[in-house]
Specification:
The complex is a heterodimer of chains A (166) and B (420). Chain A has 6 helices and 3 strands; from the N terminus they run ααβββαααα. Chain A is α+β, with helices and mostly antiparallel strands. In chain A, helix 2 packs across helix 3. The radius of gyration of chain A is 19 Å and the shape is globular. Chain B is of the alpha/beta class. Chain B folds into 2 domains: 127 residues, Aspartate Aminotransferase, domain 1; 256 residues, Aspartate Aminotransferase, domain 2 (3-Layer(aba) Sandwich), CATH 3.40.640. Chain B contains 14 helices and 17 strands. In chain B, the strands form 5 sheets. A 7-stranded mixed beta sheet of chain B has the order 4-10-9-8-7-5-6, with helices on both faces. A 4-stranded antiparallel beta sheet of chain B has the order 13-14-17-16, covered by helices on one side. Chain B starts with 14 loop residues before the first helix and ends with a helix. Classes of the chains: A alpha+beta (166), B alpha/beta (420). At the A-B interface, loops of A face helix 12 of B. The structure holds pyridoxal-5'-phosphate. Pyridoxal-5'-phosphate binds next to helix 4 of chain B.
Chain lengths: 166, 420
């Protein structure tokens, strides 16, 4: 059933506009709507995880590993997992990229270490945001933040062929 | 904080007046004065161009080349007058030599799909430079694969300029049919020695396609003096709207090429059995064209010429010289490409220590309202050669001033403090 035309939010953030710009669902797009979400991006938590990662490195004999890149910016993340009785015993990430992708990799591994593999498969974008301590990210930076989880999931799927997507 | 003491004043054009023509420059970014340093990606648009678009839709909108009523005649006249305007701007012999496309990428693909498919054969070589944007690289790679031909990449010198000896050798040793080369690199800023390249190529019977996407907006370009065979550029980098581009080639060459896309507008006569093609330039313009874009481009050219292409080039050269000088004072900042401002357009790509360009760009934006590009700038093969996965890029245009350079440098210092 159609409930009228769904309109995408108008991506306009004019500061000196004389008429207010209306977005989806009649929401007024105020100047700074994008700005509040990103002010706190380069804060302690992310910078600390980036500068002093706890989970950077490679495992000698991983039970699962996967590597992927973000073709837009060339960020590369590799994840190595050691799994015993379905539990992630050890995990390391390697690669290179911006602070957001590297911090995201470190923080997400911190979260899943010692957890059953299934936990990885249930993680969502919101979990990544939670680990990074942000409410949201702009479109381009979401890709940076999500790359590590994508790689981690691929590594975990590799361990459990029955769970492979498609 | 700002080194205003040594800041030069704009001598070649009045940036204060120019800036007033660009409404977007009045907005703030994260509470700061907007410092737009990404004109190599797309330029901002002056009020004059925006007014021309509005006036077209408010007064003359109709489909072109179809109706006999007043509006249709007006729209057609405006569209064809825009073509004449472009032809004069680039020094074409006639308006028939100006083909409107969607952008530079489509103009290059047009050549690959028409001239290329007919001309390039097994064992032929297409020479491209190591500086090329993907849009002057991938179409040739695909064409070569389809025709059992090959693409060879002309090396760069350590200075970041084109290695003409390498091109010469290639022309000598291989059956090179086409040299596809950017007028100005969108990464290194290098201004390529086009007349030398054209002479070399023609001397060996090869054609030359110039990707002028970064050149047409920033310096005087005379296609007849240039003597290349194809020239492609894109409106949105030169104050016009997105979605309008240009292919130029000599009339005789265009006549000999088969059409690109098929449908309305490009036909002379369609019967159930066969179709004959329309005259130039419409043979290459299937379907309803971007009339608004063409009108916007003509208006943009009026604006640019009113300021003066020589003045714009001189202004950007001064900005780049100042920026190179100021960036050299920032420990850890490393600049890609030639050091001599005379050899480069208004583009500076750089890295700062091991700060990832994305982090740099985000911090510049958030803390200082500075818009720069971060990534491989659609030139992955070049970044691979340089051993980089990404770089940061600041690019200038007529509305940038020396203060913008100072803000850029202050912002880089902030990023270093945050990431350090
Ligand atoms: C050197 C060069 N060539 C081609 C292009 C492609 O322009 P467009 O995307 O408008 O086709 C660009 C712009 O990104 C460029 O910088």
């Amino acid at each position: 059933m159609l409930h009228g035309v769904r309109r995408a939010p108008v991506p306009v953030y004019l500061l000196e506009t004389s008429h207010p710009v209306r977005g989806g669902r009649g929401r007024e797009l105020r100047p700074g709507r994008l700005e509040s979400a990103v002010d706190d991006l380069y804060r302690e938590l992310i910078l600390d995880a980036y500068k002093n990662p706890r989970n950077r490195g490679r495992l000698e004999e991983p039970d699962a590993s996967y590597e992927d890149e973000n073709p837009l910016c060339g960020d590369v993340i590799r994840m190595d997992l050691e799994i015993r009785n379905g539990v992630i015993e050890a995990a390391k990430f390697s690669g290179h990229g911006c602070a957001i992708s590297q911090a995201s990799a470190d923080l997400i591994l911190e979260r899943v270490k010692g957890q059953p593999v299934e936990v990885v498969l249930s993680l969502s974008r919101e979990d990544v945001f939670e680990e990074l301590g942000v409410e949201s990210l702009t479109v381009s930076r979401v890709k940076c933040a999500m790359l590590p989880l994508k790689v981690l999931k691929a590594a975990a799927y590799g361990m459990q062929p029955s769970l492979k997507p498609g | 904080m700002t080194a205003s003491l040594g800041r030069p004043v704009a001598a070649h054009l009045d940036t204060t007046t120019v800036r007033e023509d660009f409404p977007i420059l009045r907005r703030l970014a994260h509470g700061h004065r907007l410092v737009y340093l990404d004109s190599a990606a797309t330029s901002q648009k002056p009020r004059q161009v925006l007014d021309a678009l509005r006036s077209y839709y408010e007064n003359s909108n109709a489909n072109v080349h179809r109706g006999v009523y007043l509006l249709a005649e007006e729209a057609t006249e405006l569209y064809e007058a825009a073509r004449v305007r472009v032809a004069r701007f680039i020094g074409a012999s006639s308006a028939e030599e100006v083909i409107f496309t969607r952008n530079a990428t489509e103009a290059i693909n047009l050549v690959a799909y028409t001239w290329g498919q007919e001309t390039i054969g097994s064992g032929d070589t297409i020479a491209v430079s190591a500086l090329e944007h993907h849009s002057n690289f991938v179409p040739w790679q695909v064409l070569a694969a389809n025709r059992s031909a090959q693409v060879d990449v002309v090396d760069l010198t350590s200075e970041g300029t084109l290695d003409l000896d390498c091109l010469d050798r290639m022309l000598m040793e291989k059956r090179v049919r086409l040299v596809a080369i950017a007028g100005i690199s969108n990464v290194m800023g290098t201004i390529n020695p086009l007349s030398d390249i054209v002479d070399l190529a023609h001397g060996h019977g090869a054609m030359v396609l110039v990707d002028a996407a970064q050149m047409a907006p920033h310096m005087t370009m005379d296609v007849r003096r240039l003597d290349a065979d194809f020239v492609a550029f894109t409106g949105h980098k030169m104050l016009a709207p997105m979605g309008i581009g240009v292919l130029w080639a000599r009339e005789q060459l265009l006549q000999s090429m088969p059409p690109f896309l098929f449908g309305g507008e490009m036909i002379r006569r369609v019967t159930e059995r066969e179709t004959t093609w329309n005259d130039l330039p419409w043979k290459f313009e299937a379907g309803t064209p971007n009339v608004e874009g063409a009108i916007g481009l003509a208006s943009a050219i009026d604006y640019l010429e009113q300021i003066g292409m020589k003045q714009i080039r001189a202004h950007e050269k001064a900005l780049v010289a100042y920026a190179l000088h100021r960036l050299a004072d920032i420990p850890g900042a490393s600049i890609l490409g030639p050091r001599d401002p005379a050899l480069r357009g208004g583009v500076i790509a750089f890295t700062v220590g091991d700060i990832h360009p994305h982090d740099l760009a985000s911090i510049l934006d958030r803390r200082h309202g500075v818009c720069i590009r971060a990534g491989h700038h659609c030139a992955q093969p070049l970044h691979e050669r340089l051993g980089l996965s990404a770089s940061a890029r600041a690019s200038f245009y007529l509305y940038n001033d020396f203060e913008d350079v100072d803000v850029l440098c202050d912002a880089i210092q902030t990023a270093k403090a945050v990431m350090g």
